[in-house]
Amino acid sequence: METATTFRHFPKLLVLVLFCAPLVFAETPASDTLVYEHENTLSIVGLILPHNSLKNSKTLHNWPFFAFAAPSWNSIYKWQKPSGKLATFKGSAAGDANFAGLGVKLDVAIELIHLLELGLQANGGTALNYGETSTFMGVYDIEKKDYRQDIIFTEYAYGFTYKGALTLPLLALLPKSDWTKVILKLTGEYAYSGYTGANDGEVWKAGNGNMVNGFHYKCGGTLIYMMPFKRVPMAMLAANVSGFKHAYDFDPAYKDYNPGFKTVNIVPMLSFKVNDVWNGMLMAAISRDRRFKNDRYKSSEELLQKQVGAEWDLRTIMCIFSRKF
Fold first, then answer.
1. Which residues of 272-287 are buried (b: 16+ CB within 10 A; e: fewer)?
2. Angle CA(245)–CA(146)–CA(256) in degrees, nearest 5?
3. What is the pTM (predicted TM-score) of this model?
4. Gyration radius (Cα) of the chain, Å
5. In degrees to the nearest 10, what's the CA dihedral of 10, 13, 14, 17?
6. Helix H segments across 36-169?
7. Which of 304, 200, 290 is nearest to 255 (CA)?
């Protein structure tokens, strides 16, 4: 039934894309020149973790919340080359350093009629460790019911991602005004992730989420509302569904954890301008995650718990201040 509904609406989306394409072409000058750009961004990331996000921390599991701020640095080299009005070839190489570790990303993509983008990304990275307070790097040990933590530069995460994005400028169908600038961006990802310190079937963490050597997916969209305010120019609402492609990628010991569970994330965002050089973004992460039979378990035992349902909760509140160089 859901598939039939999707295909029933597909012609409407196609008509919308074709309708908007001439508007995009009319505003885009024809040029086949290679455009190159280098950009550095310094960010201050502030995080508030509510209690539900701390229950697997040995030292913070009884805290109502935990807040901290940390700097991050991103350096990106981008290029793009139009090929007539129909296609633009794009690429980038980026490196970043933040509280979770160091990483690098290589990206190539083709953009069609400035509305549909298809690409491939390769990534690699490592992570820092904060001992018992928070694990950002390591492999889960089933016998000890805890992570075998790795220190930085001993093991590495790596992977590649197939990506697609379709931009629907809804503003073209709305009455023209400063209050009707709305864009819908639909996205989909199919990715492989691996870790040099984990065997197939083992759950590992390198960053903020549990992973396994294998494929996973994410699909959803972002509604972008451009507002006529100098200090608060944009509001966004993102929603996506994600999960692992194959439950058999996990060791059989994780059967009760339900590796095939689909996680739903909803993220409202608000961008703001601090001054001429500093910008900001305020966001909250609300998600539908697993609910377990035994909620009072020892630290890091979640992966061996029996899932009995799902629950919605506020996972993170984040505020980012950034400056570009």
1. beeeeeebbbbbbbeb
2. 45
3. 0.85
4. 22
5. -160
6. none
7. 304
Torsion over CA: 15, 24, 322, 105 (sign)? positive
Which amino acid belongs to residue 104? V
* Number of residues in the chain: 325
Residues 54 and 48: their CA atoms lie apart, in Å, by 11
pLDDT one-digit tens code per residue, 7-54: 344 444 444 444 444 444 444 445 678 999 999 999 999 999 999 888
Q: Cα 50 to the chain's mean position, in Å?
A: 20
* Residue among 145, 53, 150 nearest 101 (CA): 150
As given in the structure block, the two tokens for residue 31 are 């040029």
* Residue from 230, 285, 306 nearest 50 by CA: 285
Q: How far is CA 314 from CA 54, 99, 220, 230, 285, in A?
A: 12, 22, 19, 29, 6
Cα separation of 92 and 98, whole Å? 19
Q: What is the tens place of the pLDDT at every residue in 45-79?
A: 999 999 988 887 778 888 999 999 999 999 999 99
